[in-house]
Amino acid sequence: MSVTTHVPENVSAKKSFANSTFIRVLRYTAVRLLTLFVTVVIGVYLTILIANMGGFVDQIIKTQIRDSITQSVASNQTYLQMDPALRKQLIEERIILEEKRRGLDTPIAVRNARYLVNALKLDLGRAINMTSDSGSKQVRLILLERLPATLLLMGSSQLFLFFSSVFIALNLSRNYGNFWDKLTIALSPSSAVPPWFYGIFLILIFASGLKILPFGGMVSAPPPLNKLDYALSVLKHLTLPGLSLILSSFFLSVYNYRTFFLIYSSEDYVDMARAKGLHPKDIERRYILRPTLPNIITNFALLIISLWTGALFTETVFLWPGLGRTLFQAIGQYDTPIIVGSTIIYAYLLAMTVFILNFVYALVDPRVKIGE
Asked: If you count Cβ atoms within 10 Å of the first and of the last residue's Cβ in the chain, which end, N or C, has fewer?
């Protein structure tokens, strides 16, 4: 006698749906990770090619090596007594040894491939010319030493810019067409001016003219011994570069968020909610802010990872010892390991952010389905 077990159709359908959803998400995750990894590889390799200028940097370094060794031998009294032919041979031998030590005897294609593999493994190697404050040439230590200064400058200015822009834009969308709304629209083109340009004017006004704020640097010299005085000194030095970064993007940022809020506040379902007599704050929270969340979250996420890059020219103008100024110096000194090291870390941060955002969108917006 056999016993037949009947599985309810709805249970079987739920299991089938769950399995198909899991497979779809797994497939999407794998494809997305592979795509992002390929993008990172291509981006980093192009950075290596550009940083080496197609091999032209090698010629510059070889010329520097030749000039340095030739001058070193020529200034040594011991070698001046040597036969000119022997002295020339000695110079050539030293040049060959130095080029071999720096790996310049290896074909550039092979070295670029090594750069790429090491960069992907976060083996950043040693800088060519630059050193850390402790005297180390390790790229990792050089970047980590400059990171706190950049996080302080970029973090304080960009976070203030983000939250103030959203808050002010929300208030402007409530009072569409008033004086402040029109003023924001009129001033939004001012964001086309780069922050370092604002920085120069701020230096002329507050440092050179009024003499109430320092020209640059991160702290007074010599640094105050008292912690409170040290913090106040850093705050004074932070004011001008932070203000220049905020001014360069403030009005355009407010204008962008205001536009998004106005678009969603004019939707039919918002008018229907108002007709039903819902409280304005409930309408704002449910029907205006929530649809704009993907855009707000994206901007915030990109803002966070942009903290790594620093402000290249602004940090240079204000002599701020951050990652932006370090990268600017590395470009000027053809220090490829510094350039590649900074780029690969940013590339990984960007790839991880883009990957995570896909899942965040699905959480905040029910219309988004992962893998569809």
From this structure: N
Residues 6+ apart with CB under 8 A from 354: 36
Which pair of tokens denotes residue 62? 């070889």
Identify the residue whose tokens are 């780069």: 194
Q: Measured between alpha carbons, how far is 150 from 157 in angstroms, rounded to an integer?
A: 11
Is the residue at 256 inside a domain?
yes
Cα–Cα distance measured from residue 216 to residue 318, given in angstroms and rounded to the nearest whole number: 4
Q: Same structural domain for residues 307 and 227?
A: yes
d(CA 185, CA 191): 11
User: Are residues 28 and 115 located together in one domain of the fold?
Assistant: yes
Q: Helices marked H in the chain — which ranges? A: 9-52, 56-74, 77-80, 84-101, 108-120, 139-174, 179-187, 195-202, 227-265, 268-275, 280-283, 290-309, 312-317, 323-332, 336-364
Residue 236 has a pLDDT of: 93
Q: Which has the closest alpha carbon to 295: 155, 153, 195, 169?
A: 169
The verdict on residue 236 lying in a domain is yes
Within-domain flag for 298: yes
Work out the percent of the chain whose per-residue pLDDT is above 90.
10
In this structure, are 196 and 329 located in the same domain? yes
| Residue closest to 286 by CA, chosen among 303, 272, 301 | 272
pLDDT score at 110: 84
User: What is the average pLDDT across 332-342?
Assistant: 86
How do residues 56-96 score in pLDDT, each as one tens digit? 778 888 888 888 888 888 787 777 777 788 888 888 888 88
Based on the fold, state whether residues 319 and 257 are members of the same structural domain: yes
Q: For 177-205, how does the pLDDT look when each residue is reduced to its tens digit (9 = 90+)?
A: 888 888 888 988 888 888 888 999 999 99
Residue 368 lies in a domain: no
Q: Which domain holds residue 273?
A: 146-334
| Number of domains comprising the chain | 2
Same domain, 98 and 152: no
Q: How far apart are alpha carbons 164 and 92 in whole angstroms? A: 62
